[in-house]
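Reviewer 2 asked us to include a model.

Predict the structure of this chain.
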Amino acid sequence: MGCLGNILWFIFGGFASGLGWALAGVLWCITIIGAPIGHQCFKLAKLSFFPFGKTVEYGGGPVSLIANILWLIFSGIPLAVGFAAWGIVLFATIIGAPFGIQMFKLAKLALMPFGAKVK
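Predicted model (structure tokens):
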């Protein structure tokens, strides 16, 4: 299911969700201070393109907390709302339920991405 799920995901929504992360990364990289946050966005764009078979572990320290607060204020809420809305739409169909689960995983990650490790 992982390989087939990733292929279908990329074709029917993963490309758009990955572009959302990449756009946020580009906007953050405009400033020198935001470059580390933008770099994290590009890592999460890679996850968003192909999320099946990967898990996210949350952790981090005080630096991650500060980065998450800045992220939440400026970029996290719009991305999380978008992913959650798509998750609800996908859960409306039985076939879309696995994809809805991935959208909710990305919505949670969109709120607090720093300190999270993808495995």
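Residues 62-91 form the longest helix (30 residues). The CA atoms of residues 11 and 77 lie 25 Å apart. We have added this to the supplementary material.
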